[in-house]
Amino acid sequence: MYHSQRLFKPLYIAYVALLTATGSVYAGGLGLTVQSGSGGGNAATGHAMAEDASAMYYNPALLMSIPDRRINGGIALVNTDISVKNAGSTMPSAAAGFPVIGENSTEPGGLSPVPSFFYRSADLPNNLVYGVGVSAPFGVNTHYDDDSFTRYEATESSLKTLNINPAIAWRVNEQFDIGAGLNLQVGRAVLAQALDSYLVCQRLAAASPQITAATCKALGLTAPSNVATDSAVSIEADAIGYGFNAGIAYRPTDKTTLSLGLRSAVTLEFEGDADFTHSSHLAALGDTALAAAGLQDQDAETELKMPASASLAVAHQVNDKLTLHGDVTWTQWSSIPEIRIKFPDTTTDDSVTDLQWENTVRVGTGLTYQMNDRMKLRAGVALDPTPTPGPQHRTPRAPNSDNLWLSGGVSYQLNKQMSLDAGLSLVHPQKTSINYTIPGTSDYTTRAKVDSDVFVGAVSLNYRF
């Protein structure tokens, strides 16, 4: 099967954001780490303190540790500076390994907002409390120019996820709280890339007596990797899935809290449309010939199992001013060994992206310092590894690598009811490379050097009723 039928790249590798917001976050895999201004100030290591309602994202049992009815609403601004430079990318075997011709240096990042909202109810009878969280747990987004050397693998990749999480917590006794919640997760994906019209025509010429190499030449399709004659394909798809989360909080002393939060996997079943835009050169072959080659608009679907995770966190109040905290989070990224796109209404072969992602363990530590009655200072550091096992499984759609998080932040009590949290994180991904070949006969190989830095600014407002 030639490259046009293999180019429906992972609907998963994409996106960042909550509703219409998109961007690149560079957490391990697709995970979005920062869920509040407080978390943005301590590299998401301080949730065992349960300072605000966003703690329920990590462990619903922590709702019980948050005093009184309150809300937390905020936004993270993610600025991703990525440099992707060509290092010898080649066309498929059908083009004898011809070099990809195009812009050899590209910057697919940008600035993106990621909003969130969390609510903690007033205390209920029988030591119960409930909460609701609305957040974006996964996402990444990349955009390349139409003439980029990556264009036959990727021009646009985006995935938007929205997670609605009602939860309840119960105080078992003075030391133990437990909690559980449901997760309704919706996703929307957009994927686009270029299609080499010359190779398409050559393939049709080899399979059809009505089309010859001379036909292709007469249409102006005389050489591969010509951006002026490229066609394009784009798919858009939507999905919905369900899962649960649960947790326990243990206070061995009045100064120490241990938190264990678990999130189940969520299977997103994407269904959508693949839309082709043919160049005038290729369109001259006629709809019948193109449809016979699988190059007509058609349905597309895939199933993506977003990973389960477990987070163990601790917070210890050293004295009236200083609290130390830390977090270890395991994520089951091995739930995504490949992305298999199916086309149920045609005979087009499945499109497979071989990822072989591995499970990861994120480790972080931080501190919170109470300057005075109104102001807190925060700091944190974390190591967040990528699930990508190596360059052969890294694609330009999500060229992530191991990350070092350095965070600082502040909280200010505006009045008895309102406080403001702000945090700034420098996320420094390790320099890395891409050496990915599309499986099958459409064996484009993208070889590139990747260098990037990410800045995450987060602000949230807490209101206590």
Explain what the structure shows.
It contains 5 helices and 21 strands. 7% of the residues lie in helices and 49% in strands. Strand 8 and strand 9 form a beta hairpin.
CATH architecture: Beta Barrel
Oligomer: single chain
Poorly predicted runs of 5 or more residues:
1-26
- Report the average pLDDT across residues: 89
Rg, nearest Å: 25 Å
**The CATH homologous superfamily:** Outer membrane protein transport protein (OMPP1/FadL/TodX)
End-to-end distance: 62 Å
What is the CATH topology descriptor?
Porin
Main sheet: strands, sense, barrel: 14 strands, antiparallel, barrel
Number of helices: 5
CATH class: Mainly Beta
Strand content: over 45%
Helix content: under 10%
Q: What form results from the Cα inertia axes?
A: elongated
Q: How would you summarize the topology of this molecule?
A:
Layout lengths: L36 H5 L28 E17 L18 E2 L3 E11 L7 E8 L5 E3 L12 E16 L4 E20 L1 H11 L5 H6 L12 E23 L2 E8 L2 E12 L2 H4 L3 H6 L5 E9 L2 E9 L4 E10 L6 E4 L9 E4 L5 E11 L4 E10 L18 E11 L4 E12 L2 E6 L7 E20 L1
